Amino acid sequence: MASAPAQQPTLTAEQTRVVLSEVIQAFSVPENAARMDEARESACNDMGKMLQLVLPVATQIQQEVIKSYGFNNEGEGVLKFARLVKMYETQDPEIAAMSAKLKSLLLPPLSTPPIGGTIAAS
């Protein structure tokens, strides 16, 4: 017999701002910052390695914060929280700005090739 699915936490926009703020602050805790730096250095700006090395560390840091708000302590909880944030981004400029800040902590800046640039043949 299957167990009933866990109730997904529902947060107001105000609560979401508080949780987002705590998540962002968690990345500046020296121990977490060191873990992220180490993972980034190991990834060497390779996007595939970023997904393998940096994303799991970032997920763990987020899980530590959001579990006290009713999200499960697995990757699924982080995904549900991300969906909740995305829902509020269009309604609340502060949440949108905090979400962008969080994304900047997780992903390296993307360098784009110049528009119309050509690669010289050697």
Automatic annotation (TrEMBL):
> Which cell locations does it reside in?
Cytoplasm
A Gene Ontology biological process in which this protein takes part is: post-embryonic development
The cellular component terms of Gene Ontology attached to this UniProt record, alphabetical and capped at eight, are: cytoplasm
Query: Family assignment?
Result: Belongs to the UPF0456 family.
What domain of life?
Eukaryota
Name the record gives this protein: Protein C10
Q: One Pfam family, short name please?
A: P_C10
Q: Which PANTHER family match?
A: PROTEIN C10
Specify whether Cytoplasm is a keyword of the entry.
yes
Native source organism of the sequence: Austrofundulus limnaeus (Annual killifish)
What are the protein's UniProt keywords?
Cytoplasm
User: Any signal peptide, and if so, which residues?
Assistant: none
